[in-house]
Design goal:
Blueprint (H helix, E strand, L loop, with lengths): L1 H11 L3 H8 L4 H11 L5 H6 L11 E2 L13 H8 L12 E3 L6 H7 L4 E3 L4 E2 L8 H4 L8 H28 L1 H19 L5 H29 L5 H25 L3 H7 L10 H4 L4 H6 L3 H14 L6 H5 L14 H4 L1 H25 L9 H26 L1 H20 L6 H29 L5 H23 L8 H16 L18 H27 L1
Antiparallel strand pairs: 1-4, 2-3
Helix pairs in contact: 1-24, 2-15, 3-11, 8-9, 8-10, 8-22, 9-10, 10-11, 10-21, 10-22, 11-19, 18-20, 18-21, 18-22, 18-23, 19-20, 19-21, 20-21, 20-23, 21-22
Length: 551
């Protein structure tokens, strides 16, 4: 009889979700929170793939000014004819020149030059071109792979950010981490525009990437923890729609600003305008409760209720302490608890494939045969409906099926591209756009799914771990593109086959549609047993005290 009454009491205890329903599941306050965390994401695509538009290939050839010492009156065409060999198509070689000799001009004209060597005195570029990373730091010929290597090192920064920011956010809170990351992204982003060499450029971009990573993985839990169950998908995907809009802006920004230093400033400086975030960005009340900071959580909940024109009953606020019984979590729980280990492994695999195919397609924008700015615009235009469609797909079909099918579709597109002849530029671009649409929608699904699968006490650590694995894929993706030297189909074949495998694994995950967010690392059964034991112990102590009073 006692256990029956205790069980009833457990069921009727106030959960944190009840407070969210009391203040309004998606009122004006939550909409403002989502807006604040979404605005900086407009510039995120620029930091992620903007470098592609700073290293656009232009005609170039070896600097052969050595011949001017013996032929100062040569025209440019005469100089090139005498000092540069031609390829099979009759064009000047871009990476080879005739070896300099100590002859007079008449001898050079009469006998010609035969011995060749790699460019030894730099390169010459069209004078009409605006300064780019490629022309300013000579990212051509033997140095052309430095661009892809630089992108991989940027992904290392994202990886470091995932390792640091996730646990840090679970320890000190979502708000301070976001503010630090916003500041870091802006300061280092602007500083990059004034760097004198490519080595410093790589280092500063890597540091900036840690901040970018922190923004990406912290905005999602903050949005998910402030809204009701039925609005989680909407809140997260609204922020991701800003990412899609940013992809469209990137196409226009990079087309209009060809000077890479001005483009870097334009893509970074606007975040300075968001200084007021220090006063308006809230902390997650759910996180505060799990850390026992009840009064601070009450302050945020009251503010949310006031802005939403709602009232929380005082007796309900008094029961907020009941939620502080949550056991502290550790990132090791993701590995030692069986149900969390399964989720962690499969979601990490899903994030890895998301990142691999997304960046594989995004960074290969110059390899599809059409104008890169038009291709980027197409990527951005389809990404927006792709993100929006997730809102409905996740509500209709649930998280598991959508995650699996989107990965399978993205992988299939890559496999088809690998088998299409290189001269079919339009067909390849259309398939790449579809693959990119599926990849970005899958990425959005992964963020939502992860936020719902991991408990509050280690939600940031879980999302951070998945993001860390995704960053490993981001490091690998540009390097896979280098395999194109052996055969053009290899990169797409690798992206496609790996992504199809990840999609199949997602069918093993549990469904979370309409399920309340978990707060601690125990299963529902373990939580009920723990609460029954706590209530039983409390009841026994009260009975003992009453007996002593009676005696």
């Amino acid at each position: 009889m006692l256990h029956s009454s205790l069980a009833t009491e457990v069921v009727t205890m106030v959960e944190f979700g009840d407070f969210i329903r009391a203040v309004g599941e998606f009122g004006l306050y939550q909409k403002l929170v989502v807006l604040w965390i979404s605005l900086p994401l407009l510039l995120n695509p620029f930091h992620m793939v903007g470098q592609v538009f700073m290293v656009v290939d232009v005609p170039h050839y070896c600097n052969t000014d050595w011949i001017r010492a013996v032929g100062p009156n040569l025209t440019e065409e005469e100089q090139l004819n005498l000092t540069l060999p031609r390829d099979a198509n009759g064009d000047y070689e871009q990476c080879i020149m005739y070896s300099p000799v100590d002859w007079d001009l008449d001898s050079i004209v009469a006998y010609g030059l035969n011995a060749t060597e790699k460019c030894s005195n730099g390169w010459v570029y069209p004078t009409a071109e605006q300064p780019s990373l490629l022309t300013e730091f000579d990212l051509v010929c033997d140095r052309k792979d430095l661009s892809d290597i630089s992108q991989s090192i940027y992904m290392v920064g994202l990886l470091v950010g995932s390792i640091i920011v996730g646990p840090l956010s679970d320890r000190i809170g979502r708000r301070p981490v976001l503010l630090i990351c916003f500041l870091g992204q802006t300061l280092f982003g602007v500083a990059i525009a004034f760097l004198p060499n490519f080595t410093l450029y790589i280092i500063f971009r890597c540091i900036m990437a840690t901040a970018v990573s922190g923004i990406l993985i912290t905005t999602v839990p903050l949005a998910a923890e402030w809204v009701g169950v039925s609005y989680r998908t909407l809140a997260v995907l609204i922020s991701h729609c800003f990412l899609a809009t940013g992809s469209i802006l990137l196409a226009g920004l990079s087309y209009g600003i060809r000077n890479w230093r001005l483009l870097q400033i334009a893509g970074s400086a606007p975040v300075f305008a968001l200084f007021f975030y220090y006063w308006v960005l809230p902390e997650s009340a759910r996180w505060l409760v799990t850390k026992g900071k009840i009064e601070e959580a009450k302050k945020y909940l009251k503010k949310a209720a006031s802005i939403n024109k709602r009232t929380i009953p005082p007796e309900m606020l008094d029961q907020l302490k009941c939620e502080t019984q949550t056991k502290p979590g550790s990132i090791l729980d993701l590995l030692r608890k069986k149900h969390l280990l399964k989720v962690t492994l499969i979601m990490s695999c899903a994030w890895f494939m998301d990142s691999l195919v997304y960046y594989g397609l995004s960074l290969n924008v110059t390899g599809f045969g059409l104008d890169i700015y038009l291709t980027q615009l197409a990527f951005g235009v389809v990404e927006l409906p792709g993100r929006i469609s997730c809102i409905y797909l996740l509500q209709w079909f649930g998280r598991k099926k959508v995650q699996a099918v989107l990965l399978l579709l993205a992988g299939l597109m890559c496999l088809i591209i690998a088998g299409i002849p290189e001269d079919q530029a339009v067909a390849i671009t259309v398939l790449a756009v579809i693959g990119r649409l599926a990849a970005c929608a899958s990425f959005s699904t992964s963020y939502i799914y992860s936020a719902e699968l991991f408990p509050t006490v280690i939600r940031q650590s879980g999302v951070g771990l998945c993001s860390m694995v995704a960053r490993v894929a981001g490091i690998i993706a540009p390097l896979i593109l280098i395999l194109e030297e052996y055969h053009r189909s290899i990169p797409m074949a690798v992206y496609g086959s790996a992504t199809v495998l990840g999609g199949l694994l997602c069918f093993l995950l549990p469904e979370t549609r309409g399920v309340e967010l978990p707060d601690d690392t125990e299963t529902d059964k373990e939580q009920k047993i723990s609460k029954l034991q706590t209530l039983s112990k409390t009841n026994s102590e009260e009975t003992e005290i009453n007996l002593e009073k009676d005696i």
